[in-house]
Design brief:
- The chain contains six helices and two strands.
- It is mainly alpha-helical and 187 residues long.
- A hairpin with a 6-residue loop joins strand 1 and strand 2.
- Helix 2 runs antiparallel to helix 5 and helix 5 runs antiparallel to helix 6.
- The N and C termini lie far apart (120 Å).
Length: 187
């Protein structure tokens, strides 16, 4: 009985030996945490705007992408094999993003493209964090936030002058519609 118990405990110990030291464990926690936090930041912004993919989706996409990269690195994959992991990840995230795109009755009525692109960007940020490129991940998150938050305001500012040029000032027009012919004004 003691032999098979020793064999079981030895096997379990071997299975849980992928993090050999505190340095590796810290690296894993930092990379996955950075990915989750940055994905969460983008998710909060999207959720506040009432979009389909919110905090949890963005956090899971970023952390999952980071995990694919970290596991590939831990297993000793060579860069050529890592590129195949990234290709699969990018394609898979593309399918996830495609699920957020809704086409209306016409070609002009398509919704969800920004959400799909945001999910794709979140995956890329997770990959950067997973590779240990935390500064790149943070800067990319800040740029994505700027695009999500500032671009709609900038586009509104650009569109307002164009709309005011096309608007007819009704104060300058004297338009009268009567059933009878208009009488000339009294002197």
């Amino acid at each position: 009985m003691s032999t098979w118990w020793a064999q079981i405990t030895s096997t379990v110990a071997t299975e849980f030996s992928d993090l050999n030291d505190l340095t590796q464990a810290t690296r894993l926690v930092v990379r996955l945490s950075v990915a989750a936090v940055l994905g969460g930041v983008l998710g909060v912004e999207r959720e506040q705007k009432g979009k389909a993919a919110g905090v949890r989706t963005h956090m899971l996409v970023a952390m999952g992408s980071a995990l694919f990269v970290v596991v590939s690195q831990q297993s000793g994959m060579v860069p050529a094999d890592m590129s195949r992991v990234l290709q699969g990840l990018i394609a898979g995230i593309g399918f996830l993003g495609a699920g957020t795109i809704l086409k209306g009755h016409s070609e002009a009525n398509v919704q969800g493209l920004t959400t799909a692109a945001g999910i794709w960007m979140t995956a890329a940020i997770g990959v950067a964090a997973g590779l240990g490129l935390e500064v790149t991940a943070v800067l990319s998150t800040l740029m994505a936030l700027a695009i999500f938050s500032l671009m709609p305001r900038l586009l509104d500012l650009i569109d307002k002058p164009a709309q005011s040029e096309n608007r007819i000032e009704t104060e300058d027009l004297d338009v009268s519609v009567f059933d009878k012919p208009a009488r000339p004004p009294k002197p």
